[in-house]
Amino acid sequence: MTAFIVAGDDDCGSMVFDSLPGEIQNFLKNLSVEDGKLLQSLSGELKGKSLDDVIAAVKPKSEELANKLKEMANGLATKIGALPEDGQKFMANLLSSVEGVTDPQALSEAVKKVAASAKNLPKDVQDKITKDFPSLKELLN
C-alpha cells in the first residue's frame, strides 16, 4: 500500500483528488484538523514510506488515526483483491507509481502515465476496475 499526501487547492490537485479511489477520498475528507496537522508534521518523515510504515509512525501519536488508516488500507486491499489478476497488477502499479510523490503536478503525471497502460488491459478487466473504482473511470477512458 502507498501513503498518499495530496496537497493544494489548484485544478491539478483537485483532478488528482477526484481520481483517487473512494476509500482514499473519504479518508482525506474525514480527517480532523488535528489528524491533518499530525500528518503534516510527519510528512517529511513519511515521504516515500509504505502505508504500513505510516501507520507504525502514526500509531504512538494517535491510535485513532492509525486505525482510520488501517480501515482505509483494508478496504482498498479487499477491493483490489477481488479484481482479476491483470487488474490487481494494474492497481498495484498505479499505487506504487505515486509512492512518495507529494507534488500535485508530479502526482498527476505519474497517474496519467500508469492510466495510459490501462488501454492494454482486457475490456472486462477495465470494466471491473471502473465498476469497483468509479473515480478511475475518467482516467481510464
From TrEMBL:
The keyword Phosphoprotein does not apply. GO terms for cellular component: extracellular region. It is found in: Secreted. Keywords: Coiled coil, Lipid-binding, Secreted, Signal. InterPro entries: Gp-FAR-1. GO terms for molecular function: lipid binding. Its main location: secreted. Gene3D superfamilies: 1.20.120.1100. Pfam families: Gp-FAR-1. Belongs to the fatty-acid and retinol-binding protein (FARBP) family. This is DUF148 domain-containing protein.
